[in-house]
């Protein structure tokens, strides 16, 4: 009886490996974005969902663990007690800023432009700082996975002060992503949370800064 030898598995060519590697990035961004969007439906869990997603994306980029979708839920389960107070605060500030924007629009339509300009001058710096915080906190939580939220906030301050150029770049990217999602709302469930988180990890880096780092 003749035995048929099993063929050895075909080796991937260089271009196939490069293509699969390139496709993994948008796939993980979209899958992670869907997971974070589902976790963020309670509103106050939006920032905790971004934190969980950042940690899942870090595991993928650093350790080649590409189960980003399921890891986002696992990270959320392990961090929500630390991150939920930040989520409640972020939701409250978002509500206040939205109310300010609505008030400014009303003032502008009724002709009280002077008062609107005064309020806008006060609200814009707060909004910019708040947006930077939203973008930086998930990165800080991925850099310091075992620390408290106070340490996360300290890391946020360090990131913003030590890397002003990167912070400015992230601010521009954050605004661009927000505008894009407003113009194309169908993208929101897929990339509204994952794109800024991924950009933050790339721009600021997911490695904790050392005293000698740039």
From TrEMBL:
Annotated transmembrane regions: 29-54, 84-105, 117-141, 168-192
Keyword terms: Membrane, Transmembrane, Transmembrane helix
Keyword hit for Membrane: yes
Name under which the protein is recorded: DUF624 domain-containing protein
Organism per entry: Microbacterium marmarense
């Amino acid at each position: 009886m003749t035995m048929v030898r099993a063929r050895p598995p075909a080796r991937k060519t260089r271009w196939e490996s490069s293509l699969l590697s390139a496709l993994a990035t948008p796939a993980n961004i979209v899958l992670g974005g869907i997971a974070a969007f589902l976790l963020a439906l309670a509103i106050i869990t939006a920032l905790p969902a971004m934190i969980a997603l950042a940690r899942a994306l870090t595991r993928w980029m650093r350790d080649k663990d590409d189960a980003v979708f399921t890891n986002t839920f696992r990270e959320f389960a392990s961090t929500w007690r630390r991150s939920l107070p930040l989520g409640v605060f972020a939701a409250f500030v978002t509500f206040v800023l939205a109310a300010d924007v609505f008030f400014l629009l009303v003032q502008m339509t009724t002709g009280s432009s002077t008062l609107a300009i005064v309020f806008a001058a006060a609200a814009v710096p707060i909004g910019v700082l708040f947006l930077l915080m939203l973008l930086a906190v998930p990165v800080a939580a991925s850099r310091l996975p075992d620390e408290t939220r106070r340490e996360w906030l300290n890391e946020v301050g360090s990131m913003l002060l030590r890397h002003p150029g990167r912070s400015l770049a992230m601010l521009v990217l954050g605004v661009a992503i927000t505008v894009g999602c407003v113009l194309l709302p169908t993208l929101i469930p897929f990339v509204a949370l994952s794109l800024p988180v991924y950009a933050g990890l790339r721009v600021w880096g997911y490695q904790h800064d050392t005293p000698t780092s740039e």
